[in-house]
Amino acid sequence: MIKVMQIRLKIYLLKDIPVSGIQAETASLIDRGLVQSTELARLHDENKYKNYCYDSLFPIEPDRIYHRDKIYTLTIRTIDGKLARFFERQLVNGYTETMKALTAEIKLISQKHIDLLFSLTPVILKCESGFWKDTLSIEQYEERLKINLLKKWNQFYGEKLSEDFELFTGIEFLNKAPIAVEYKGIRLLGDKLRLHIAENRTAQALAQMAVGTGIGEMNARGYGTCNYRWL
């Protein structure tokens, strides 16, 4: 059984934050907490998949600015039990110059047959030439997403899965133009996706894992977080 744990974190803002900057500010809050633990600090520093993802603060304000002195909800998901306990028990004491964590609630997401995955935050795939559409076909893009999930599985579960299976029966792009995100002064482009998941066992296992890890890259920066629709 693939365990996906969801943590709903209440966050109090100390300053106004524009929507464009909220993922970076949230990442700073999480990173600051992780480095307080010797074991989790190694995870933070290692060049490997982090096995967690998170969305943007909710609710989104009409003026696209998250306001100081208000409380919002951040949803974090992970397949790593140690991380789940950290998010639930220790991150609630965390703070930065812009936000403070207050309370956390944790639950286990049921494992059921997944029909669709749809991204809540832009999916990022980094290519040397820039945006993926400049060099990759749709089929190659789908394959990159598939290989990315397989690598996450192999790293976390220590089990190498065969690549010879169908993962997606369809892919839809929900944005008319690429979505720009800022990361360390660099402008990256991503997409909002709706992914139709195949019914075979491997596809269903990877889709369940993706709910807890995100799809694409930079999941620990708040990108590629997915929600799901059960069949």
Short description:
Helix content is 28%, strand content 29%.
Please give a structural write-up.
The chain is an alpha+beta fold. 28% of the residues lie in helices and 29% in strands. Strands 3-5-1-6 form a four-stranded antiparallel beta sheet. Strands 8-11-7-12 form a four-stranded antiparallel beta sheet, covered by helices on one side. Helix 4 crosses helix 5. The relative contact order is 0.22. The model has no long low-confidence stretch (mean pLDDT 93).
Descriptive keywords:
231 residues; alpha+beta; 4-stranded antiparallel β-sheet; 5 helices; 12 strands
How much beta, percentage-wise? Answer: 25-35%
Average pLDDT confidence is: 93
Number of helix segments? 5
Largest sheet: 4 strands, antiparallel
The string of secondary-structure elements, in order, is: EEHHEEEHEEHEEEEHE
Which regions have little confidence, pLDDT < 50, spanning 5+ residues?
none
Rg, please? Answer: 17 Å
Assembly context of the chains: single chain
Helices and strands in order, then pairings?
Elements: E1 4-13, E2 17-18, H1 22-34, H2 38-45, E3 52-54, E4 65-66, E5 71-78, H3 81-90, E6 99-109, E7 114-119, H4 138-157, E8 168-173, E9 179-183, E10 186-190, E11 193-197, H5 201-213, E12 226-230
Antiparallel strand pairs: 1-5, 1-6, 2-4, 3-5, 7-11, 7-12, 8-11, 9-10
